[in-house]
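Problem: given the chain below (202 residues), write out its structure.
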Amino acid sequence: VLSARDDATAMASMRSDVALSALSPTWRMLLLSDGSVTRHLAVLYGARKTEVEVRWQGEDDGVGRAAPNDVKMIKGDKIIRREVFLRPSALDGDGRGVDGDGGGATPPAVYASSWWSETEMTKFMPERESSMWANLRTQHVELYREIRMVYCGHSAELEEVFQAKGPFWGRHYIFWNGGEPITIVYEVFNPSLVDVLGPLEA
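Solution.
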């Protein structure tokens, strides 16, 4: 969906003639951090937790949705793709998002896709409706997150989802466990995060 920026040269990548290095420190930290994005969102918004809306989960037949090349590293005959929206929950837990205004769910803060082998999905993600971080934390899984690409670009579909104009910043990374890649994760961030992160550019 978005134009890839190789992480090896991420700090020199461009968005409409603006280098990634020209982004504010908070936005660079979000994009290049190896921490949990669900935990980051809860802390940034002072939310009880980050709600997960599973938009789709099933076998990836390779048709209709582009995937990072790193997905080829996932071993197994059947690759499962999971698409979710992430929203910081209201402090009272009413499921209406951080605004809690009764007007329906707020736009998601993050769109995320992940690719798993069927075996690893069953092993590491037993709670389908919970976040990846919650599933892995519950099982005390030791992981290494390797940021692989930083992305920037436009998407009419995401403009509708986020209720915001692009360009959008995103990234993809690999979760490693025991020297093996267990999943590839692709995340795109809603520009409305400026409300808690501050301006996009330094």
